[in-house]
Design goal:
With about 280 residues, this protein is α+β, with helices and mostly antiparallel strands. Strand 2 and strand 3 form a beta hairpin. The chain has two domains: about 1-60 and about 75-105 and about 130-185, no CATH class; about 185-275. It has helices spanning about 5-15, 20-30, 35-45, 90-95, 115-120, 135-155, 170-175, 200-210, 215-230, 235-250, 250-255, 255-265; strands spanning about 60, 65-70, 75-80, 85, 100-105, 125-130. It has a four-stranded antiparallel β-sheet. Mean pLDDT is about 80; it is low at about 185-200 and about 270-275. It contains twelve helices and six strands. The radius of gyration is 23 Å and the shape is elongated. Helices cover about 45% and strands about 10% of the residues. Helix 4 packs across helix 6 (about 135-155).
Length: about 280
Protein backbone atom coordinates (compact mmCIF):
# COMPACT_ATOMS: atom_id res chain seq x y z
CA UNK A 1 0.00 0.00 0.00
CA UNK A 2 1.33 3.44 -0.98
CA UNK A 3 2.27 5.83 1.79
CA UNK A 4 -0.05 8.71 2.68
CA UNK A 5 1.97 11.31 0.78
CA UNK A 6 2.30 9.19 -2.38
CA UNK A 7 -1.42 8.41 -2.25
CA UNK A 8 -2.22 12.12 -2.01
CA UNK A 9 0.01 12.82 -5.01
CA UNK A 10 -1.73 10.08 -6.98
CA UNK A 11 -5.18 11.35 -6.10
CA UNK A 12 -4.24 14.92 -7.02
CA UNK A 13 -2.85 13.89 -10.39
CA UNK A 14 -5.08 11.07 -11.59
CA UNK A 15 -8.29 10.71 -9.59
CA UNK A 16 -11.68 12.39 -9.79
CA UNK A 17 -11.75 13.14 -6.08
CA UNK A 18 -13.17 16.51 -5.14
CA UNK A 19 -11.02 19.26 -3.67
CA UNK A 20 -12.92 18.77 -0.42
CA UNK A 21 -11.87 15.12 -0.27
CA UNK A 22 -8.27 16.02 -1.10
CA UNK A 23 -8.18 18.69 1.60
CA UNK A 24 -9.47 16.20 4.17
CA UNK A 25 -6.70 13.76 3.27
CA UNK A 26 -4.15 16.58 3.48
CA UNK A 27 -5.59 17.46 6.89
CA UNK A 28 -4.81 13.94 8.11
CA UNK A 29 -1.21 14.25 6.89
CA UNK A 30 -0.63 17.72 8.33
CA UNK A 31 -2.13 16.68 11.65
CA UNK A 32 0.04 13.58 11.93
CA UNK A 33 3.11 15.70 11.11
CA UNK A 34 2.01 18.41 13.55
CA UNK A 35 2.22 21.14 10.91
CA UNK A 36 0.22 24.00 12.38
CA UNK A 37 0.60 26.44 9.47
CA UNK A 38 -0.72 24.21 6.73
CA UNK A 39 -3.35 22.73 9.05
CA UNK A 40 -4.60 26.27 9.63
CA UNK A 41 -4.80 26.90 5.87
CA UNK A 42 -6.61 23.61 5.26
CA UNK A 43 -9.05 24.44 8.04
CA UNK A 44 -9.93 27.77 6.42
CA UNK A 45 -10.36 26.14 3.01
CA UNK A 46 -12.71 23.53 4.45
CA UNK A 47 -14.73 25.88 6.67
CA UNK A 48 -14.40 29.24 4.90
CA UNK A 49 -12.62 32.47 5.82
CA UNK A 50 -14.04 34.88 8.39
CA UNK A 51 -14.59 38.45 7.22
CA UNK A 52 -11.75 39.54 9.50
CA UNK A 53 -9.34 37.01 7.96
CA UNK A 54 -7.19 37.92 4.97
CA UNK A 55 -7.74 35.47 2.12
CA UNK A 56 -4.88 34.12 -0.06
CA UNK A 57 -4.23 35.96 -3.33
CA UNK A 58 -5.79 33.21 -5.44
CA UNK A 59 -9.12 33.95 -3.72
CA UNK A 60 -9.02 37.60 -4.81
CA UNK A 61 -10.81 37.49 -8.14
CA UNK A 62 -12.02 39.81 -10.87
CA UNK A 63 -14.95 39.46 -13.26
CA UNK A 64 -17.74 40.45 -10.86
CA UNK A 65 -21.01 41.93 -12.15
CA UNK A 66 -23.10 44.27 -10.04
CA UNK A 67 -26.87 43.78 -10.08
CA UNK A 68 -29.64 45.64 -8.25
CA UNK A 69 -33.16 44.49 -7.44
CA UNK A 70 -35.62 46.81 -9.13
CA UNK A 71 -39.04 46.36 -7.42
CA UNK A 72 -40.73 46.68 -10.81
CA UNK A 73 -38.35 44.76 -13.06
CA UNK A 74 -36.52 42.34 -10.80
CA UNK A 75 -32.75 41.93 -10.87
CA UNK A 76 -31.01 44.28 -13.30
CA UNK A 77 -27.40 44.38 -14.42
CA UNK A 78 -25.71 47.63 -13.54
CA UNK A 79 -22.25 47.07 -14.99
CA UNK A 80 -19.24 44.77 -14.82
CA UNK A 81 -16.94 45.88 -12.02
CA UNK A 82 -13.23 46.51 -12.12
CA UNK A 83 -10.95 45.45 -9.34
CA UNK A 84 -10.75 42.28 -7.30
CA UNK A 85 -13.05 40.85 -4.66
CA UNK A 86 -12.28 38.39 -1.86
CA UNK A 87 -14.09 35.05 -2.04
CA UNK A 88 -14.43 33.72 1.52
CA UNK A 89 -16.71 30.72 1.00
CA UNK A 90 -15.47 27.21 1.85
CA UNK A 91 -14.18 24.80 -0.80
CA UNK A 92 -17.29 22.59 -0.42
CA UNK A 93 -19.46 25.63 -1.13
CA UNK A 94 -17.38 26.63 -4.14
CA UNK A 95 -17.70 23.16 -5.63
CA UNK A 96 -21.47 23.58 -5.65
CA UNK A 97 -21.13 26.93 -7.44
CA UNK A 98 -18.85 25.77 -10.25
CA UNK A 99 -21.61 24.74 -12.65
CA UNK A 100 -23.95 27.73 -12.53
CA UNK A 101 -21.92 30.43 -10.85
CA UNK A 102 -23.10 32.28 -7.79
CA UNK A 103 -24.14 35.58 -6.36
CA UNK A 104 -23.43 37.24 -3.04
CA UNK A 105 -25.47 40.00 -1.40
CA UNK A 106 -23.80 43.34 -0.81
CA UNK A 107 -24.20 44.39 2.80
CA UNK A 108 -25.73 47.79 3.58
CA UNK A 109 -22.42 49.26 4.71
CA UNK A 110 -20.71 48.30 1.44
CA UNK A 111 -23.30 49.26 -1.14
CA UNK A 112 -22.10 50.83 -4.38
CA UNK A 113 -23.15 54.39 -5.12
CA UNK A 114 -25.17 54.21 -8.36
CA UNK A 115 -27.72 56.98 -7.76
CA UNK A 116 -26.53 58.85 -10.85
CA UNK A 117 -27.78 55.98 -13.00
CA UNK A 118 -31.00 55.00 -11.25
CA UNK A 119 -31.94 57.98 -9.08
CA UNK A 120 -32.09 58.36 -5.32
CA UNK A 121 -34.58 55.51 -4.83
CA UNK A 122 -31.84 53.01 -5.71
CA UNK A 123 -30.30 53.46 -2.28
CA UNK A 124 -33.10 51.27 -0.90
CA UNK A 125 -32.67 48.52 -3.48
CA UNK A 126 -30.76 45.34 -2.69
CA UNK A 127 -27.46 44.80 -4.47
CA UNK A 128 -25.54 41.64 -5.26
CA UNK A 129 -22.26 40.62 -6.88
CA UNK A 130 -22.52 37.90 -9.52
CA UNK A 131 -19.64 35.61 -10.56
CA UNK A 132 -19.40 32.96 -13.28
CA UNK A 133 -18.68 29.35 -12.36
CA UNK A 134 -15.23 29.64 -13.97
CA UNK A 135 -14.14 31.94 -11.13
CA UNK A 136 -14.82 29.25 -8.53
CA UNK A 137 -13.26 26.53 -10.69
CA UNK A 138 -10.09 28.62 -10.85
CA UNK A 139 -9.92 28.94 -7.07
CA UNK A 140 -10.35 25.19 -6.62
CA UNK A 141 -7.63 24.49 -9.18
CA UNK A 142 -5.29 26.81 -7.28
CA UNK A 143 -5.95 24.79 -4.11
CA UNK A 144 -5.14 21.57 -5.98
CA UNK A 145 -1.89 23.05 -7.31
CA UNK A 146 -0.76 24.10 -3.83
CA UNK A 147 -1.57 20.70 -2.37
CA UNK A 148 0.43 19.02 -5.13
CA UNK A 149 3.42 21.32 -4.60
CA UNK A 150 3.29 20.56 -0.88
CA UNK A 151 3.01 16.79 -1.38
CA UNK A 152 5.94 16.75 -3.81
CA UNK A 153 8.04 18.80 -1.41
CA UNK A 154 7.27 16.37 1.41
CA UNK A 155 8.43 13.41 -0.65
CA UNK A 156 11.58 15.22 -1.70
CA UNK A 157 12.40 15.48 1.99
CA UNK A 158 11.87 11.74 2.43
CA UNK A 159 8.47 12.13 4.09
CA UNK A 160 6.13 9.44 2.78
CA UNK A 161 3.92 8.20 5.64
CA UNK A 162 4.20 4.46 5.14
CA UNK A 163 1.63 2.32 6.97
CA UNK A 164 -0.56 5.38 7.65
CA UNK A 165 1.99 6.93 10.02
CA UNK A 166 5.16 9.00 10.12
CA UNK A 167 8.30 8.18 12.09
CA UNK A 168 10.25 10.71 14.16
CA UNK A 169 12.74 11.35 11.35
CA UNK A 170 9.92 12.27 8.97
CA UNK A 171 8.25 14.51 11.54
CA UNK A 172 11.53 16.28 12.21
CA UNK A 173 12.15 16.83 8.48
CA UNK A 174 8.63 18.22 8.04
CA UNK A 175 9.24 20.92 10.66
CA UNK A 176 11.94 22.51 8.48
CA UNK A 177 9.62 22.96 5.51
CA UNK A 178 8.55 26.53 4.76
CA UNK A 179 4.95 26.71 3.58
CA UNK A 180 4.14 30.06 1.97
CA UNK A 181 0.66 29.75 0.54
CA UNK A 182 0.79 33.19 -1.10
CA UNK A 183 3.89 32.45 -3.14
CA UNK A 184 3.64 28.73 -3.76
CA UNK A 185 3.29 28.55 -7.54
CA UNK A 186 5.33 25.45 -8.27
CA UNK A 187 8.69 23.93 -7.49
CA UNK A 188 10.39 25.10 -10.66
CA UNK A 189 11.07 28.14 -12.72
CA UNK A 190 10.97 28.89 -16.43
CA UNK A 191 12.94 26.79 -18.88
CA UNK A 192 15.68 29.44 -18.94
CA UNK A 193 16.09 29.27 -15.16
CA UNK A 194 19.25 27.42 -14.20
CA UNK A 195 18.13 26.82 -10.60
CA UNK A 196 15.14 24.59 -11.35
CA UNK A 197 14.43 21.82 -8.87
CA UNK A 198 14.49 18.26 -10.21
CA UNK A 199 12.94 15.50 -8.15
CA UNK A 200 14.17 11.93 -7.99
CA UNK A 201 12.63 9.66 -10.65
CA UNK A 202 11.15 7.44 -7.94
CA UNK A 203 8.73 10.26 -7.06
CA UNK A 204 6.84 9.72 -10.34
CA UNK A 205 7.52 6.06 -11.12
CA UNK A 206 4.16 4.87 -9.84
CA UNK A 207 2.30 7.62 -11.69
CA UNK A 208 3.94 6.61 -14.98
CA UNK A 209 3.31 2.93 -14.41
CA UNK A 210 -0.36 3.41 -13.60
CA UNK A 211 -0.76 5.59 -16.70
CA UNK A 212 0.41 2.69 -18.86
CA UNK A 213 3.75 4.20 -19.94
CA UNK A 214 6.00 1.45 -21.29
CA UNK A 215 9.19 0.42 -19.50
CA UNK A 216 11.25 1.67 -22.44
CA UNK A 217 9.71 5.14 -22.27
CA UNK A 218 9.98 5.25 -18.48
CA UNK A 219 13.68 4.47 -18.83
CA UNK A 220 14.09 7.36 -21.28
CA UNK A 221 12.58 9.83 -18.84
CA UNK A 222 14.65 8.46 -15.96
CA UNK A 223 17.79 9.05 -18.02
CA UNK A 224 16.74 12.64 -18.78
CA UNK A 225 16.05 13.34 -15.12
CA UNK A 226 19.37 11.83 -14.09
CA UNK A 227 21.16 14.04 -16.61
CA UNK A 228 19.24 17.10 -15.37
CA UNK A 229 20.26 16.46 -11.77
CA UNK A 230 23.94 16.47 -12.77
CA UNK A 231 23.84 19.10 -15.51
CA UNK A 232 25.64 22.43 -15.44
CA UNK A 233 23.40 25.52 -15.44
CA UNK A 234 23.98 26.22 -19.14
CA UNK A 235 23.05 22.61 -20.03
CA UNK A 236 19.68 22.57 -18.27
CA UNK A 237 17.53 24.53 -20.78
CA UNK A 238 18.08 22.00 -23.60
CA UNK A 239 17.49 19.07 -21.26
CA UNK A 240 14.26 20.64 -20.01
CA UNK A 241 13.09 21.02 -23.59
CA UNK A 242 13.88 17.35 -24.20
CA UNK A 243 11.89 16.40 -21.09
CA UNK A 244 8.95 18.57 -22.13
CA UNK A 245 8.85 16.91 -25.56
CA UNK A 246 8.67 13.56 -23.75
CA UNK A 247 5.69 14.75 -21.70
CA UNK A 248 3.88 16.10 -24.79
CA UNK A 249 4.44 12.78 -26.57
CA UNK A 250 2.73 10.91 -23.71
CA UNK A 251 0.14 13.58 -22.82
CA UNK A 252 -2.84 11.43 -23.78
CA UNK A 253 -1.82 8.51 -21.58
CA UNK A 254 -0.74 10.71 -18.68
CA UNK A 255 -3.90 12.82 -18.59
CA UNK A 256 -3.95 14.85 -15.38
CA UNK A 257 -0.77 13.02 -14.37
CA UNK A 258 1.18 15.22 -16.81
CA UNK A 259 1.09 17.99 -14.20
CA UNK A 260 2.86 15.92 -11.57
CA UNK A 261 5.46 14.76 -14.12
CA UNK A 262 6.16 18.33 -15.23
CA UNK A 263 6.66 19.46 -11.66
CA UNK A 264 9.00 16.53 -11.01
CA UNK A 265 11.20 17.32 -14.02
CA UNK A 266 11.33 20.99 -13.11
CA UNK A 267 9.05 22.30 -15.85
CA UNK A 268 6.56 25.05 -15.02
CA UNK A 269 5.10 24.69 -18.51
CA UNK A 270 1.47 23.65 -18.94
CA UNK A 271 0.94 22.47 -22.46
CA UNK A 272 2.58 24.07 -25.52
CA UNK A 273 5.97 23.24 -26.92
CA UNK A 274 8.61 25.12 -25.01
CA UNK A 275 10.94 27.59 -26.67
CA UNK A 276 14.57 28.12 -25.85
Amino acid sequence: MAGLVIQLQHDLATSNKSVTELLRMAKVISSKLDLAEISDWIGHELSGYATSKEVPDYRKVSGARLEVFNPYRGWQLVEPLRGKFAIQQSAPSLELLCEEGGNFPVTADRKFNIESEFGSSVRHWNQRLVFSGAVFTGILQSIRDRLLDWALELEQRGIKGENMSFDEKEKSAAQTQVFNIQNMHGVAGNVSNSTVTVYDYSSIHQTLKQAGISQEERNKLETIMDELSKAKPEEKPSLLQKAEKWVIKHQELLGAGAAIVRKAIGSAHTGETMGS
